[in-house]
């Protein structure tokens, strides 16, 4: 599959588009904040078991009528297992209250309380801070690896692309107020790895072409490299998205946000590998001289008999 697309002809438009989206994402994050889930804000988690398939919408409505506002209800494992997340503090009788309330609306079913857990706000705050630290450490180690494996400019471009991806995905969650929980945080770490993988493939081809192509135009070499890797990028992204859409629509409520974060991440990561990383290399002035291997000063003399 051969492509001949002038990607870099659109690089200024892509730069403006990315800048606007980054400003919107950061602004929303600062002024609107994220819709943090129970993992970060604290609350109560209740697991119930029904003898038959549970009616999730009916359970949710019963809880709201019973005064449990903001309750999140989802199947857990099977259609008979139900997981309820309640924001706020816990009481010793909360589990019994919920079972009693739900039993009164389902007289023909005996509901079993499997477990009740409480996540305090302090623990949630620590989880949020530790998650942010994990992302920063991941970015630092990836930058060191690429600098060692390729060249410092490639490392800088890759990290710029990764930071762009993380900020944009977080910004989308902030803008449309989708719940941000531990599964989304895990998805963000996966997005970093996925985006880096694609960026490394593109960077490796750019490095090879800088050494092998006769052209001295970095613009032309990067464009050629992007076209050569486009087929692989499209196939990988599309097959990944097929799986993620299946997870989103068929995987159940508990992993819906995880799948959604990965869908956003794959799309943004594919875009950033083409336009953000490549754009950054051009702006940093990458050329053939940066990859030229210097010969020892007395190399010619050493060859003399």
TrEMBL record:
Top-level taxon: Bacteria
Q: Which SUPFAM superfamilies match?
A: Multidrug efflux transporter AcrB transmembrane domain (SSF82866)
Q: List the record's Gene Ontology CC terms alphabetically.
A: plasma membrane
Where does the protein principally reside? Answer: membrane
Q: Which GO terms describe its biological process?
A: intracellular protein transmembrane transport; protein targeting; protein transport by the Sec complex
Q: Which UniProt keywords are given for this protein, alphabetically ordered?
A: Cell membrane, Membrane, Protein transport, Translocation, Transmembrane, Transmembrane helix, Transport
Q: Does the keyword Signal apply?
A: no
* Any one Pfam family match given in the protein's UniProt record, by short name: SecD_SecF_C
Compartment list: Cell membrane
InterPro entries (UniProt xref): SecD/SecF_arch_bac (IPR022813), SecD/SecF_bac (IPR022645), SecD/SecF_CS (IPR022646), SecD_SecF_C (IPR048634), SecD_SecF_C_bact (IPR055344), SecF_bac (IPR005665)
- The membrane-spanning stretches of this chain are 12-31, 131-148, 155-176, 182-203, 234-252, 258-282
* Coiled coil regions in record: none
Gene Ontology molecular function: protein-transporting ATPase activity
Membrane topology listed for this record: Multi-pass membrane protein
Q: Which residues form the Protein export membrane protein SecD/SecF C-terminal domain?
A: 106-285
Whom does it interact with, and what assembly results?
Forms a complex with SecD. Part of the essential Sec protein translocation apparatus which comprises SecA, SecYEG and auxiliary proteins SecDF. Other proteins may also be involved.
Which protein family is named in the record?
Belongs to the SecD/SecF family. SecF subfamily.
Q: What does the record give as the function of this protein?
A: Part of the Sec protein translocase complex. Interacts with the SecYEG preprotein conducting channel. SecDF uses the proton motive force (PMF) to complete protein translocation after the ATP-dependent function of SecA.
Record protein name field: Protein-export membrane protein SecF
* Gene assigned in the entry: secF
């Amino acid at each position: 599959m051969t492509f001949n697309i002038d990607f870099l002809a659109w690089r200024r438009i892509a730069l403006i588009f990315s800048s606007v989206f980054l400003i919107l994402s950061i602004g929303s994050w600062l002024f609107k904040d994220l819709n943090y889930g129970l993992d970060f804000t604290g609350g109560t988690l209740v697991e119930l078991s029904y003898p038959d398939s549970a009616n999730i919408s009916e359970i949710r409505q019963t809880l709201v009528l019973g005064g449990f506002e903001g309750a999140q209800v989802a199947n857990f494992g099977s259609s008979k297992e139900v997981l309820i997340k309640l924001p706020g503090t816990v009481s010793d009788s909360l589990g019994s209250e919920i079972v009693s309330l739900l039993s009164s609306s389902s007289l023909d079913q005996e509901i079993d309380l499997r477990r009740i857990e409480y996540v305090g706000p302090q623990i949630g705050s620590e989880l949020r801070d530790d998650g942010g630290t994990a992302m920063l450490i991941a970015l630092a180690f990836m930058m060191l690896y690429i600098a060692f494996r390729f060249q410092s400019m490639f490392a800088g471009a890759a990290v710029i692309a990764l930071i762009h991806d993380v900020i944009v995905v977080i910004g989308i969650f902030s803008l449309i107020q989708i719940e941000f929980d531990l599964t989304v945080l895990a998805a963000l770490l996966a997005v970093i790895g996925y985006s880096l993988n694609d960026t490394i493939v593109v960077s490796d081809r750019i490095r090879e072409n800088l050494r092998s192509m006769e052209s001295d135009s970095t613009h032309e070499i990067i464009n050629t490299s992007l076209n050569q890797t486009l087929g692989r990028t499209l196939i990988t992204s599309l097959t990944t998205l097929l799986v993620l859409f299946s997870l989103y629509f068929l995987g159940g409520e508990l992993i819906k946000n995880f799948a959604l974060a990965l869908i956003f991440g794959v799309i943004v990561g594919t875009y950033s590998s083409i336009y953000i990383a490549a754009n950054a290399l051009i702006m940093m002035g990458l050329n053939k001289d940066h990859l030229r291997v210097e010969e020892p000063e007395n190399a010619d003399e050493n060859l003399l008999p």
